[in-house]
Amino acid sequence: MTAFNTIPNIPESLLATLQTLNFTTMTEIQEKSISPILEGKDILAQSKTGSGKTLAFGIPAVIKTDVGKNRPQTIIITPTRELAEQVAAELRKIAAYKPNLKILTLYGGVPLRAQADSLAKGAHILIGTPGRIQDHLAKETLTLESINTLVLDEADRMLDMGFYDEIVKIASNMPKKKQTLLFSATFPHKIETLAKKLLKEPLIVKVDTVQ
Ligand code: ADP
Ligand code: MG
User: Fold this and answer.
1) What is the pLDDT of residues 51-74, one digit of tens each?
2) Counting CB atoms within 10 angstroms of each CB, which of 11, 45, 62, 101 has the fewest?
């Protein structure tokens, strides 16, 4: 069990926030992926549900966000609106130490217009489902030119739901030079195909136990 304070250059204010949330030691997936992500590596990570994958990509995403730039920098794609909300809730908690950091969710079932207005005001981290992200791209209420990190969360579920083509299409709207992080609970063959398409020399992190 390794403490969060062993992460190189982790801001003191983030450590204090983690402490108030009672997060003191990292889970195994966090221990193996946070530092390489902070170093800029692409990651192909597999660990079971409940093993703490959200903070494994969420902590680096929050640390790396430049709130001085009012542009989306990280986009996290999730299979469902419920998961998008869960991820947003967890990231908003740890981002409390950066009060100007804006996290916006994009999913169906709510009017496009309201989300478009929020996008126009600016957000740093976007969390959304493939269909709604594509809707915004098609209507040009969203551009992904300033994205430097793409996260695919629950990638296995997204592929089960038939989102392969949508994910590849969304990624094609982002700069080629970016970091891509793929997180999944299982590792079916389709994940390997998606990883080959989107990740560059990824570090492969597999964790078999739940902590
Ligand atoms: P996964 O995405 O792998 O299914 P989650 O990221 O949703 O898992 O985390 C599962 C639960 O564990 C959440 O309630 C989360 O707040 C908690 N958790 C995550 N990291 C830690 C940690 N380092 N210490 C204690 N609890 C944690
Ligand atoms: Mg998860």
Assistant:
1) 999 999 999 999 999 999 999 999
2) 11
Mean pLDDT of 99-108: 97
The closest residue, in CA terms, to atom 9 on ligand 1 is: 52
Residue 6 burial (CB count, 10 A): 12
Q: Ligand 2 mean position to 153 CA, how many Å? A: 6
pTM of the model: 0.97
Q: Which residues line ligand 1 (CB under 6 A)?
A: 23, 26-27, 30, 47, 49-55, 90
Domains of the chain: 30-206 (3.40.50.300)
Q: Which residues surround ligand 2, an ion (CB under 5 A)?
A: 53
